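Review form for a predicted model. The reviewer records the input and the model, then writes brief findings.
Reviewer: anonymous (R2)
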Amino acid sequence: MAFVKDMLRMWAHSWKRFISIAMITLLGVAVLTGIYAGCRDAFRSTDRFFDAQGLHDVQVLSTAGLSNGDIAALRKVNGVAKVQAERSQEVTFDLDGRKSATMQEIGTNGIDQPYLQEGRMPKKAGEIAVTRKFIRDSGKRIGSRLTVIPESASSDTSDTNGTNGADGTNETSGTDEAPSFPTKLTIVGVVLDPQNLSNPDGYSAMTSFRSTATTDYTFFAPSDGVTGTLYTSATLLVKGAAAESTFDESYENTVKQVTDRIDGTVKTDRQKARRQELLDAGNKKIADARAEADKKFADAQSQIDANRQQFNQQVDQIVSMQAGAAAAGAAANGANAGAAAAAGATTPQLDETTRETMRETIIAASPELTQAKQQLDQAQSQLNEQKASSEHTLKTKENELKTSIPQVRWYVQDRQSLGGFSALKSDLDSIQSLGNAFPIVFLLVAVMMSLTAMARMVEEDRSLIGTYVGLGYGRLAVASRYLLFALLACLIGGGLGLIAGFLGIPAFLLVVLQGMYVMPGLRLEYDWLYGSLGIALFVVGVLAATIYACVQEMRQTPASLLRPKAPRAGSRILLERIRPVWNRIGFLGKVTARNIFRFKSRLIMTVGGVAGCTALIVCGLAINDTVADLGIKQYRDIYQYDLMVVSDDSDASAMRTKVASDGRVTSSLDVRIESGDLTVAGSGDGDSGKAGSSGSESIQLVAVPKKHLSDLGEMVTLQPVSSGILGTSGVGKTGSLKLDDDGVIVAQSAASALGVKAGSKVRLTNGDGVQATAKVSAVNRNLIGSDVYVSETYYAKLFDSKDAKNTKNSKSSEDSEALTWNAMLAKLSGSDTSQTDYAESLEEDSSVMKAVSCAHMADSFKFDLMGAVVALIVALAGGLALVVLFTLANTNVSERVREMATLKVLGFFDREVHHYVNREMMILTVMGVILGLPLGRLVGGMLTMALNMPSLYFEVEVKPLSYVIAAVATMAFALLVQLFVNPVLDRIDPISSLKSVE
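Model under review:
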C-alpha cells in the first residue's frame, strides 16, 4: 500500500511530464485518426448514397446505339444483377444565350435514380426534374415552363445508309428509332444527379476545371412520352458489388471480373451482330426501294402500253376505213347498188407489209397522230432511262453499303469514367494520403519526447529505485511505476485524441467537403478497430521509450543506484579548438557552448524535436503555396492567350466572324477542341474499348492546323519536362519544344498521373469516340487541365481509319474536307477586367458555346479543401511544437536544479538565471529551425508528389515568406514557453536544492 501511495505521490509530483506525454499523444492520435475519419465518413456516406440510388457499376456505350438484342445479351453475362436500357437526347434552349442539356429518361429498373431534393418526381409526359444548378442559373422554380429544341443531329437517323452520329446514338436499323422526348416541359422537382455530386452553391470554381460534362445541364423525364427503340446506353449492377465499398480495391476487382467477361464474350459478338443488323437494314431498304421502283416502272409501262394500244387501234381503224373505201369504189364500177352495199360491208384482207405501210402513211399525213406517236416513244425512252438509272443507283448503294457502315464499337466503362465520382475520390484520396504521412512525424516526435521525459523521471528517482530494489521489490514492480505512468498518460491523451479525431477534425473537414459536394445522409462514425490501433501505436512507442529508460538505470546494482550518479567527465568541445573564436567568447558564453555540445542526447532531442515541428509547418505551408500559385502559373505563365472561345461545328464560322468584328483581338489561332480520353496503351489487345480504368485520364484534345503549327508556341508556353525527385521536375528551355507530325504533346498533369514519358505509346479517344494508338513526342509543362496537342496531319493519320469513316469529322482521303476549327485562342487588348467582361458577353451570343477568360480563371482559381487541410495541419504542427518545447524546457530545468541553485548562491539575479537557461534553449531552437526548414521542403516535395489528382500537377513551391513564417512561429513558441519556465526557475530554493543526498 505504501508502494502505491508513493507511486501516486510521484505521479502527482510529475504532472507536467504527464501533461506533456498526454498532449503529444492527443495530437498524434488526432492527426492519425482525424483526417482518416473525415475521409472515411465521406466515403461511407457516399457509398450508402450510391447504393440507395443504384448508381451503375458498369455502363456500356456503342457507336451505333444499343438494340434489344444487345440488352438481352448483357443480361446473360455471369455476374450481372440488373441491366437497365437508357434513352437520352441532347437538346438546346435559350437561357441568356444558347445552352445545352441532356434529356435523360428515368430508368424503371432502379439504376441511376435521381435523388429528390424538392418537389416531386415527374410522372407524366412533359414533366421534368432539374438539378439545383439549373435552378440557380436560370432563376426558374417548380412549376416553370421550358421549351427545348432537339439537336439537329438527331434528324440524321433517316439516312438510307444508317450512318452514325458523334454521340453514337443515331444509328438506325429497320425498326430502330432514335430516342425522342417531349419539347414543351414543366419543372415539377429538383433532384441531385447521383453521377455528379458537385455542390453548385459551394466552391464551384475549384471543380469547374475538372468538369467532364458534355452539356450544361441534365433534365430527368419519365418514360411516358419518350419514343424510340434505340437505346443510348445500358447500365448494369454487378452481383456482390453493393456489399463492397465503392472506393475500395475489392469493389474494383468485383466489377472488373464482369467488365472482362463483357469484353471477352459479349462485346465482339454483339459488335458484329449490330453491324450485320445495320447491313441487313440497309439491304432491306435497298430491296424495298427496288421493289417500289419496279412497281412504279411496271405501272408506268402498263400505262404506256395501254396508250400505245389505243393509238394503234385508232390507226388500224383508219387503215381499215381507207381499205374498205377503196374496195367499195372498185365494186361500184361493175355492179348494182345492192352489190356495192354488200361489198362495202366486207373489209378487204391486207397483208402485214401493206398494212404497216398504210399505218406509216396515215401517221405521217396527220400532225396529230405524228405528235401522239412521238409522245409515246418519248415516254418509253424516259421510262427506260429511269429504269437504267434506278438500277445503277441501287447497284451502287449495294456496293457502297459495306464500306459506308463503319465497324460498331462498344465502350465498357466503370464508375471511374464518371467525372463527379473520380473528382470526389481523388480529392478524398489526396487528403487521406496527407493523413497517412503526417502521423509518422508525430509518432517519432512523441517517442523522442517520451524518452527524454521518462529518462529524466527515472533518473530523478535513482536513489528511490535503489531503495526499492534493495528492499526486495522486483525490477518489474519498480518499473511498473513508470510504465503505468506513461500508459495512463497515453490512454488519457489518446482518448481525448479520439474525441478530436472522430468528432472535431472530421466535422471541420466535412464542412469544407460539403461546400464542394452534396452528400446526403452524412454522419460521423467511430471506427473501434482503427481508433484502438491508433492509441496502441502511440502506447507501444511511448512504453518502448519508457522501458528503455528503465532498463538503462535498473541494470545497475542497488548499491550503485543509492549513490549519486557520477557527473559526466569533462571534455573539450570542437569550438574550444578554434582559438580565435573561443578566446573572444565570454565566460557565460563558453559555459553555454559546453552545456549545449557536451550533453549530446539533450542536443539531439531538442534539435530533432524542433526540426520535426518546423518541418511540419514548412510542409503545410509548402502545400499551401503550391496550390495557391497553380492558377497564376497556368493561366498567366503557361497559357499566353487571353481568351478561348468554343462553338458547335455548325457555328464555327459565325463565331470567328463575331469575334473578328468586335475588334478586341490582337492575334489569334484557330484550333479544334474535343473532349476525349488518354489511356496508357497496354500490352494486350490494343483494340479494347474499355475506358475509365486506373490508367485513363480525361483530356482536352487540341488539333492545330498544319500551316500554323509554329503559332502554337505564341499561344501556349511549350517547355519539355522530365520527371524529377522530391516533387521537382526538370523543365527545358522555353520555345525548345515544337509540335510536329510525328507524335502528340501531352500535358504534364496527365503524364504524371499515368506515368507517361516522351516516346511512350498511349491510346487516344477523340470527340467521336474513335480510338487510336499515338506516340508521345514530348511532355509539356502544364499544371491545370490535361491538354493533348496534335497536328492536323497526325490527327488525320490517327483517326482516319475504317473506324473513323463517316463520322462528322473524319476524312477519307487527302482531298477530303478538312477539320472544322471549332475553337479560337486569342490575345486581347485591354485590362483583365475588360477581358473578363468581354468573355462573359461572348457567352450570350448564340454562336458561342463557351468563352473562357484566362484572367478570370487566374483570379478565381482556388482549392479550399486543400487550404482547409493545410490550415489544420499547420495548427496541429504548431501545437506539437509548443508541447515539444515545453517538455524539453522543463526537462532541461529539472536536470539542472543544483546548477541553477549554485548560480543563485553565487549571486545571480533571477533575470540573469532566466537569461542563462533560456539562451541555451533559444540556441537549440535556432539550430532546430535551421535544420527543419530544408527538411520541411524535402517532406513537402514528397507529399505533393503523392497528391496525384485528375487534371492537376503540384509543382512544389515554397515562398520565402513561408520559411519566415515557420521560423518566426517556432521562435514565438519558444518565447512563449519561456514565460512558463521562468516561474519554475524562480521557485528553485538554493538551500534545499544543494543538500547532499547523504
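Findings: The radius of gyration is 44 Å.
Further findings: The mean pLDDT is 80.
Recommendation: see findings above.
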